[in-house]
Amino acid sequence: MILVFCETRDGRIRKPSLEALSEARRLADESGKVLGALLVGASCAGAEEAAQYGADAILKIEAPSLAAYSSDGYAQAVADAVQAKGATVLLAAATSLGRDVAPRVAARLGAGYASDVTALAMADGRLQVSRPVYAGKAVATTSFETAIQVATTRPNVFVATPCAKAGAVEALPAPAGGFLAVVKEILAKGTGHVDIAEADVIVAGGRGMKDGANFKVLEELAEALGGVVGASRAAVDAGWGLPHSMQIGQTGKVVSPTLYIACGISGAIQHVAGMSGSKVIVAINKDPEAPIFKLATYGIVGDLFEVVPELTKAAKAMGLGK
Amino acid sequence: MKILVALKQVPDTETKIKVAADGKSLDGSDVKWIVSPYDEYALEEALRLRESAGAEVTAVSVGGDKAKDVLRNALALGVDTAVLVRSEQTGDPLAIARILAAFAEGKGFDLVFLGNKGFGGDNASVGPMLAELMGVAQANVVTRLEVAGGRFVAEREGDTDSEVLEGSLPAVITAQRGLNEPRYANLKGIMAAKKKTIEEVEAAPVALAVTTVSLDLPASRPEGRKLEGDAAAQAAALLGLLRDEAKVI
Description:
The complex is a heterodimer of chains A (322) and B (249). Chain A has 322 residues and is of the alpha/beta class. Chain A has two domains: 2-171, 3-Layer(aba) Sandwich (Rossmann fold); 196-318, Rossmann fold. Chain A contains eight helices and 18 strands. In chain A, strands 7-11-6-1-4-5-12 form a seven-stranded parallel beta sheet, sandwiched between helices. Chain B has helices at residues 37-53, 68-77, 93-104, 126-134, 187-195, 231-244; strands spanning 2-7, 9-11, 33-35, 56-63, 81-86, 111-115, 137-148, 151-157, 162-168, 171-175, 198-202, 210-216, 225-226. In chain B, 29% of the residues lie in helices and 31% in strands. Chain B is an alpha/beta fold. Chain B folds into two domains: 2-202, 3-Layer(aba) Sandwich (Rossmann fold); 219-249, no CATH class. The mean pLDDT of chain B is 95. In chain B, helix 2 (68-77) crosses helix 5 (187-195) and helix 3 packs across helix 4. Chain B has a nine-stranded mixed beta sheet, sandwiched between helices. Chains A and B meet through helix 2, helix 3, strand 7, strand 9 and strand 10 of A and helix 3, helix 4, strand 7, strand 8 and strand 9 of B.
């Protein structure tokens, strides 16, 4: 069995988890394996959605002790499920939670682990993956030496494709509790409910924005395109009051949106590491020599404070972002 | 309190990556080596805890002779003990976690600090793996930490918000930018460190769980196009291309 650990939010399976499910469905078909979706929590409401994305089986581990996230508690639950079902491949999305729990599960199972993978294949019955290393400056292809293989998939790289399967629901036993560390409180700060790693369109600002208040023009464009706003490290470090959760780059988030619009961003290696996987890159910068233009699909040499409002106006006129 | 800080030596973040002749490893010939940036926050937090609560701090690095540089720097910053765990093992986080767990075994560390991610492999996984192998709590990607009475409270960065978690010691903490502002070694520290000894031990033998089959440079992006005209014309041209050529809006 190939097992995909799925996260839910507001009673729906999160998009990065659906992407992992879809990719796992492809692997399952390729290797003749069964695909299981695994959900863990006090309530797994919304789990049934996994059947629409290719899950042959839906495994739920529900218990009051799992209401608040615990790294060790969830790792125990997931590892138990892998062993109970005899799964040989475990995938999770490389979200904050996925990256926290998956390596712990791998260690618990003595399984090889690869993080943030961008391509998966089955070779001789085992997983083989490709993943960016050195902050995206190289790509490593990794094979596994262990009977169980664990990997997390980078959000926005794989496509969530509906594919209806039986999705037979089964409840699995939950760990007893008494966990070593437990989340007590969620602090709303930063980008609120929008995770820039999941966004299809990102409008990002750099040092050329000159001030945090000027990000308003980016927000207007993002809204007109149905996207979200991000920032370079230079902008976040400038003391303009931008939260670190907006930061894209080697020391921030790694994003792969369909469309990335870099405004007043020079294209330092630190920033490029976080966005070079974007499908289409637009650069708007006054400096025609800015390195960002080497990456850009479309470049505009000009004053972002003139160009961006024009883009917003034109995008609204086209009725985009609806 | 006993604290362990695990440091990784990595290529400078500005390094141009070249693939070695074997096609699966880094050509280290022109590489400047540094301590992984997140590890600096880990080390700083350990030193601050020693100053505020009293602790004995051990720095450890898994690697060869050149990894002594990061340990020498840790000594200059004030750690009590620096240990090189000799191993050529690299690229497999579980192997490194097992080596570190074997080193920590029986030494009674209350806290283990690491960077949340080692630049290079970028797996961000040794911390959680080590916590599991040691059978202790983990707090991963931490931006704030309080330790008192055998327990800890940590704030960790989530996808869209922050989580406050509480747990019992011992614990493995992985540091994120924002946790603190790392200090630099002063001349006195650097001179003193030269006289100190870096202990050396052989790494526990471990089997590889993953193997790098190949290392490749990413495909370069095709040459882009610059759009001409005034702001309004550039905006109109761009939206047209995004819709009709790139088909992304």
